[in-house]
Specification:
Elements (H helix, E strand, L loop, with lengths): L7 H15 L5 H4 L5 H6 L4 H23 L3 H16 L2 H15 L3 H9 L5 H21 L12 H13 L2 H7 L11 H9 L6 H19 L1 H26 L4 H23 L9 H23 L19
Helix pairs in contact: 4-5, 4-9, 4-12, 5-8, 6-7, 6-8, 6-14, 8-14, 9-12, 9-13, 9-14, 12-13, 13-14
Length: 327
Protein backbone atom coordinates (compact mmCIF):
# COMPACT_ATOMS: atom_id res chain seq x y z
CA UNK A 1 0.00 0.00 0.00
CA UNK A 2 2.90 2.37 0.69
CA UNK A 3 4.04 1.85 -2.90
CA UNK A 4 1.02 3.82 -4.08
CA UNK A 5 2.88 7.03 -3.29
CA UNK A 6 5.96 6.21 -5.37
CA UNK A 7 4.78 7.05 -8.88
CA UNK A 8 3.23 10.13 -10.48
CA UNK A 9 0.31 8.01 -11.64
CA UNK A 10 -0.46 6.81 -8.12
CA UNK A 11 -0.13 10.33 -6.73
CA UNK A 12 -2.60 11.56 -9.33
CA UNK A 13 -5.10 8.94 -8.22
CA UNK A 14 -4.47 9.90 -4.59
CA UNK A 15 -5.08 13.59 -5.30
CA UNK A 16 -8.26 12.96 -7.27
CA UNK A 17 -9.49 10.58 -4.57
CA UNK A 18 -9.30 13.50 -2.17
CA UNK A 19 -10.99 15.81 -4.66
CA UNK A 20 -13.78 13.28 -5.22
CA UNK A 21 -14.30 12.94 -1.46
CA UNK A 22 -14.25 16.64 -0.55
CA UNK A 23 -16.26 17.93 -3.49
CA UNK A 24 -19.02 16.90 -5.85
CA UNK A 25 -16.77 17.19 -8.90
CA UNK A 26 -17.15 13.94 -10.92
CA UNK A 27 -13.44 13.28 -11.46
CA UNK A 28 -13.50 9.51 -11.02
CA UNK A 29 -13.70 8.86 -14.76
CA UNK A 30 -10.63 11.04 -15.37
CA UNK A 31 -8.30 9.54 -12.78
CA UNK A 32 -9.90 6.15 -12.21
CA UNK A 33 -10.29 6.99 -8.53
CA UNK A 34 -12.95 6.05 -6.03
CA UNK A 35 -13.53 6.22 -2.28
CA UNK A 36 -10.96 3.54 -1.49
CA UNK A 37 -9.97 4.21 2.16
CA UNK A 38 -6.26 3.69 1.54
CA UNK A 39 -6.05 6.26 -1.23
CA UNK A 40 -8.25 8.60 0.76
CA UNK A 41 -5.93 8.48 3.77
CA UNK A 42 -2.97 9.28 1.55
CA UNK A 43 -4.96 12.15 0.02
CA UNK A 44 -4.98 14.02 3.33
CA UNK A 45 -1.69 15.55 2.22
CA UNK A 46 -3.58 17.37 -0.55
CA UNK A 47 -6.57 18.53 1.52
CA UNK A 48 -5.27 22.13 1.89
CA UNK A 49 -4.64 22.43 -1.85
CA UNK A 50 -8.13 21.12 -2.59
CA UNK A 51 -9.50 23.46 0.06
CA UNK A 52 -7.78 26.40 -1.64
CA UNK A 53 -9.57 25.47 -4.89
CA UNK A 54 -12.89 25.40 -3.03
CA UNK A 55 -12.09 28.79 -1.53
CA UNK A 56 -11.19 30.11 -4.99
CA UNK A 57 -14.66 29.11 -6.22
CA UNK A 58 -16.20 31.02 -3.33
CA UNK A 59 -13.98 34.03 -4.06
CA UNK A 60 -15.04 34.01 -7.71
CA UNK A 61 -18.69 34.09 -6.64
CA UNK A 62 -17.99 36.88 -4.15
CA UNK A 63 -16.15 39.06 -6.66
CA UNK A 64 -18.76 38.46 -9.35
CA UNK A 65 -21.60 39.42 -7.02
CA UNK A 66 -19.75 42.55 -5.92
CA UNK A 67 -19.17 43.57 -9.55
CA UNK A 68 -22.73 42.91 -10.71
CA UNK A 69 -24.37 44.62 -7.74
CA UNK A 70 -21.94 47.50 -7.61
CA UNK A 71 -20.85 46.71 -4.07
CA UNK A 72 -23.10 44.75 -1.73
CA UNK A 73 -20.74 42.83 0.58
CA UNK A 74 -23.45 41.03 2.55
CA UNK A 75 -25.08 39.64 -0.60
CA UNK A 76 -21.67 38.81 -2.07
CA UNK A 77 -20.76 36.97 1.13
CA UNK A 78 -23.96 34.97 0.86
CA UNK A 79 -23.14 34.13 -2.76
CA UNK A 80 -19.68 32.95 -1.77
CA UNK A 81 -21.16 30.77 0.97
CA UNK A 82 -23.65 29.24 -1.44
CA UNK A 83 -20.84 28.54 -3.91
CA UNK A 84 -18.59 26.73 -1.43
CA UNK A 85 -21.48 24.78 0.07
CA UNK A 86 -22.57 23.84 -3.42
CA UNK A 87 -19.14 22.51 -4.30
CA UNK A 88 -18.84 20.47 -1.11
CA UNK A 89 -22.55 19.66 -0.70
CA UNK A 90 -22.32 20.65 2.98
CA UNK A 91 -19.98 17.75 3.75
CA UNK A 92 -18.34 19.41 6.76
CA UNK A 93 -21.50 21.21 7.90
CA UNK A 94 -23.16 17.82 8.30
CA UNK A 95 -20.34 16.90 10.66
CA UNK A 96 -20.76 20.13 12.60
CA UNK A 97 -24.49 19.50 13.09
CA UNK A 98 -23.95 15.92 14.28
CA UNK A 99 -21.08 16.92 16.57
CA UNK A 100 -23.15 19.73 18.11
CA UNK A 101 -26.10 17.43 18.72
CA UNK A 102 -23.82 14.78 20.24
CA UNK A 103 -21.85 17.21 22.40
CA UNK A 104 -24.84 18.97 23.90
CA UNK A 105 -27.36 16.15 23.76
CA UNK A 106 -25.37 13.13 24.96
CA UNK A 107 -24.46 12.35 28.57
CA UNK A 108 -22.43 9.19 28.06
CA UNK A 109 -20.03 7.96 25.36
CA UNK A 110 -22.55 5.46 23.91
CA UNK A 111 -25.16 8.21 23.75
CA UNK A 112 -22.71 10.56 22.03
CA UNK A 113 -21.82 7.93 19.42
CA UNK A 114 -25.48 7.03 18.87
CA UNK A 115 -26.38 10.68 18.25
CA UNK A 116 -23.44 11.22 15.91
CA UNK A 117 -24.47 8.34 13.66
CA UNK A 118 -28.13 9.44 13.57
CA UNK A 119 -28.88 10.99 10.17
CA UNK A 120 -31.46 13.35 11.66
CA UNK A 121 -30.49 16.87 12.76
CA UNK A 122 -31.59 17.99 16.21
CA UNK A 123 -32.07 21.36 17.85
CA UNK A 124 -28.42 21.87 18.74
CA UNK A 125 -27.32 20.95 15.24
CA UNK A 126 -29.79 23.39 13.65
CA UNK A 127 -28.63 26.20 15.92
CA UNK A 128 -24.96 25.43 15.23
CA UNK A 129 -25.52 25.47 11.47
CA UNK A 130 -27.49 28.71 11.63
CA UNK A 131 -24.90 30.45 13.77
CA UNK A 132 -22.02 29.19 11.63
CA UNK A 133 -23.68 30.41 8.43
CA UNK A 134 -24.57 33.80 9.87
CA UNK A 135 -21.07 34.24 11.29
CA UNK A 136 -19.46 33.29 7.97
CA UNK A 137 -21.55 35.75 5.97
CA UNK A 138 -20.99 38.52 8.52
CA UNK A 139 -17.21 38.01 8.63
CA UNK A 140 -16.87 37.87 4.84
CA UNK A 141 -18.96 41.01 4.52
CA UNK A 142 -16.73 42.73 7.08
CA UNK A 143 -13.61 41.79 5.13
CA UNK A 144 -14.99 43.65 2.14
CA UNK A 145 -13.87 43.79 -1.52
CA UNK A 146 -11.08 41.51 -2.67
CA UNK A 147 -7.60 42.85 -3.31
CA UNK A 148 -5.60 40.28 -5.25
CA UNK A 149 -1.88 40.82 -4.66
CA UNK A 150 0.42 37.81 -4.33
CA UNK A 151 1.72 37.75 -0.76
CA UNK A 152 -0.28 40.81 0.27
CA UNK A 153 -3.92 40.15 -0.59
CA UNK A 154 -6.81 41.60 1.35
CA UNK A 155 -10.56 41.39 1.54
CA UNK A 156 -12.94 38.46 1.36
CA UNK A 157 -11.59 36.69 -1.74
CA UNK A 158 -8.03 36.02 -0.52
CA UNK A 159 -9.40 35.22 2.95
CA UNK A 160 -11.65 32.54 1.45
CA UNK A 161 -8.66 30.85 -0.19
CA UNK A 162 -6.60 31.00 3.00
CA UNK A 163 -9.44 29.85 5.26
CA UNK A 164 -10.43 26.82 3.22
CA UNK A 165 -6.80 25.72 2.97
CA UNK A 166 -5.95 26.18 6.65
CA UNK A 167 -9.23 24.68 7.86
CA UNK A 168 -8.64 21.44 5.99
CA UNK A 169 -5.08 21.28 7.33
CA UNK A 170 -6.60 20.50 10.74
CA UNK A 171 -7.70 17.03 9.65
CA UNK A 172 -4.34 15.30 8.85
CA UNK A 173 -2.72 15.73 12.29
CA UNK A 174 -5.93 14.68 14.05
CA UNK A 175 -6.17 11.48 12.02
CA UNK A 176 -2.44 10.78 12.37
CA UNK A 177 -2.29 11.22 16.15
CA UNK A 178 -5.65 9.86 17.32
CA UNK A 179 -7.39 6.52 17.05
CA UNK A 180 -10.23 6.50 14.54
CA UNK A 181 -13.50 5.57 16.23
CA UNK A 182 -15.57 2.98 14.41
CA UNK A 183 -19.16 2.12 15.28
CA UNK A 184 -19.65 -1.47 14.19
CA UNK A 185 -23.43 -0.99 14.06
CA UNK A 186 -23.13 1.93 11.63
CA UNK A 187 -24.26 1.21 8.07
CA UNK A 188 -20.83 2.43 6.91
CA UNK A 189 -18.98 0.55 9.63
CA UNK A 190 -17.00 -1.60 7.22
CA UNK A 191 -15.77 1.44 5.29
CA UNK A 192 -14.70 3.31 8.42
CA UNK A 193 -13.07 0.20 9.85
CA UNK A 194 -10.99 -0.05 6.67
CA UNK A 195 -10.27 3.65 6.96
CA UNK A 196 -9.06 3.21 10.52
CA UNK A 197 -6.78 0.34 9.54
CA UNK A 198 -5.29 2.52 6.80
CA UNK A 199 -4.19 5.29 9.18
CA UNK A 200 -0.60 4.05 9.16
CA UNK A 201 -0.33 5.30 5.58
CA UNK A 202 -0.62 8.88 6.78
CA UNK A 203 3.06 9.44 7.50
CA UNK A 204 4.61 12.40 9.24
CA UNK A 205 5.92 13.55 5.87
CA UNK A 206 2.40 13.73 4.44
CA UNK A 207 1.12 15.59 7.49
CA UNK A 208 4.06 17.97 7.05
CA UNK A 209 3.19 18.51 3.39
CA UNK A 210 -0.40 19.33 4.34
CA UNK A 211 0.66 21.78 7.05
CA UNK A 212 3.37 23.47 5.00
CA UNK A 213 1.18 23.81 1.92
CA UNK A 214 -1.66 25.32 3.96
CA UNK A 215 0.62 27.93 5.53
CA UNK A 216 2.21 28.71 2.16
CA UNK A 217 -1.17 29.12 0.48
CA UNK A 218 -2.39 31.37 3.27
CA UNK A 219 0.77 33.49 3.09
CA UNK A 220 0.44 33.88 -0.66
CA UNK A 221 -3.23 34.81 -0.31
CA UNK A 222 -3.37 37.22 2.64
CA UNK A 223 0.25 38.02 3.47
CA UNK A 224 2.55 36.76 6.24
CA UNK A 225 1.03 38.71 9.15
CA UNK A 226 -2.57 37.67 8.54
CA UNK A 227 -1.48 34.16 7.59
CA UNK A 228 0.42 33.73 10.87
CA UNK A 229 -2.59 34.82 12.93
CA UNK A 230 -4.89 32.62 10.86
CA UNK A 231 -2.61 29.59 11.24
CA UNK A 232 -2.53 30.03 15.01
CA UNK A 233 -6.32 30.31 15.11
CA UNK A 234 -6.74 27.12 13.06
CA UNK A 235 -4.21 25.30 15.27
CA UNK A 236 -6.09 26.30 18.42
CA UNK A 237 -9.34 24.95 17.00
CA UNK A 238 -7.59 21.72 15.98
CA UNK A 239 -6.18 21.36 19.49
CA UNK A 240 -9.61 21.88 21.02
CA UNK A 241 -11.12 19.30 18.67
CA UNK A 242 -8.39 16.82 19.58
CA UNK A 243 -8.93 17.37 23.30
CA UNK A 244 -12.68 16.84 23.00
CA UNK A 245 -12.27 13.77 20.81
CA UNK A 246 -9.79 12.07 23.12
CA UNK A 247 -11.72 12.89 26.26
CA UNK A 248 -15.22 12.04 25.10
CA UNK A 249 -14.76 9.58 22.23
CA UNK A 250 -11.31 8.19 22.88
CA UNK A 251 -10.25 9.30 19.39
CA UNK A 252 -11.63 11.07 16.35
CA UNK A 253 -14.51 10.43 13.97
CA UNK A 254 -15.64 11.86 10.67
CA UNK A 255 -18.21 14.19 12.23
CA UNK A 256 -15.57 15.58 14.59
CA UNK A 257 -13.21 16.24 11.68
CA UNK A 258 -15.95 17.98 9.70
CA UNK A 259 -17.07 20.12 12.61
CA UNK A 260 -13.48 21.10 13.36
CA UNK A 261 -12.99 22.20 9.75
CA UNK A 262 -16.07 24.45 9.86
CA UNK A 263 -15.06 26.07 13.15
CA UNK A 264 -11.46 26.48 11.98
CA UNK A 265 -12.66 28.24 8.83
CA UNK A 266 -14.62 30.72 10.94
CA UNK A 267 -11.63 31.20 13.24
CA UNK A 268 -9.43 32.07 10.26
CA UNK A 269 -11.87 34.72 9.03
CA UNK A 270 -12.04 36.17 12.54
CA UNK A 271 -8.25 36.22 12.82
CA UNK A 272 -7.87 38.03 9.50
CA UNK A 273 -10.53 40.57 10.53
CA UNK A 274 -8.77 41.13 13.85
CA UNK A 275 -5.42 41.71 12.17
CA UNK A 276 -6.65 43.97 9.39
CA UNK A 277 -9.45 45.94 11.08
CA UNK A 278 -8.59 49.49 12.07
CA UNK A 279 -8.53 49.93 15.82
CA UNK A 280 -9.03 46.20 16.32
CA UNK A 281 -6.81 43.36 17.39
CA UNK A 282 -6.19 41.58 20.67
CA UNK A 283 -4.26 44.47 22.23
CA UNK A 284 -7.11 46.91 21.72
CA UNK A 285 -9.68 44.45 23.06
CA UNK A 286 -7.91 43.14 26.15
CA UNK A 287 -10.65 44.15 28.59
CA UNK A 288 -13.57 42.47 26.76
CA UNK A 289 -11.37 39.43 26.12
CA UNK A 290 -10.50 39.25 29.81
CA UNK A 291 -14.18 39.29 30.72
CA UNK A 292 -14.83 36.56 28.17
CA UNK A 293 -12.01 34.39 29.56
CA UNK A 294 -13.30 34.83 33.11
CA UNK A 295 -16.81 33.86 32.00
CA UNK A 296 -15.62 30.79 30.09
CA UNK A 297 -13.30 29.83 32.94
CA UNK A 298 -16.20 29.98 35.38
CA UNK A 299 -18.34 27.78 33.15
CA UNK A 300 -15.53 25.24 32.74
CA UNK A 301 -14.94 25.17 36.50
CA UNK A 302 -18.65 24.62 37.10
CA UNK A 303 -18.73 21.80 34.53
CA UNK A 304 -15.67 20.20 36.13
CA UNK A 305 -17.31 20.35 39.55
CA UNK A 306 -20.43 18.78 38.09
CA UNK A 307 -18.41 15.94 36.55
CA UNK A 308 -16.70 15.28 39.89
CA UNK A 309 -20.16 14.82 41.37
CA UNK A 310 -21.16 12.41 38.61
CA UNK A 311 -22.78 14.72 36.06
CA UNK A 312 -21.73 15.76 32.57
CA UNK A 313 -20.28 13.69 29.76
CA UNK A 314 -18.24 10.76 30.99
CA UNK A 315 -14.72 10.49 29.57
CA UNK A 316 -13.95 7.65 27.18
CA UNK A 317 -13.03 4.46 28.97
CA UNK A 318 -15.25 4.95 32.02
CA UNK A 319 -18.04 2.53 32.73
CA UNK A 320 -21.33 4.15 31.82
CA UNK A 321 -23.99 3.98 34.46
CA UNK A 322 -26.77 5.96 36.06
CA UNK A 323 -25.63 9.39 37.17
CA UNK A 324 -27.15 8.83 40.59
CA UNK A 325 -24.89 5.81 41.18
CA UNK A 326 -21.80 7.97 40.86
CA UNK A 327 -22.89 10.29 43.66
Amino acid sequence: MRAWATTPKSEARIFFSGLLFLTQIPCDAVAGCDHHPGYLVLAFAYFPAIGAAIGWAGAAAYDAAMAVLGGAPAVAAAAATVATLGVTMCLHEDGLADAADATLGGWTRPEVLAIMKDSRVGTFGCVALALATVAKVALLATLGPSVWVLGAGAGAGPALVAAHALARATAPPLVATCAYIVDEEDAKGDFYAWFGRSRHLLSGARVGVATASAVAIAGAAVGPRSAAAAAVAAAVVAGAGRWWGLRVLGGVAGDLLGGTIVVAELAVYAAVVAVTAEGGGVRAAWAPLARLLVTVGGMVALAAASRRRGGGIQPAGLVDGPRAAAR
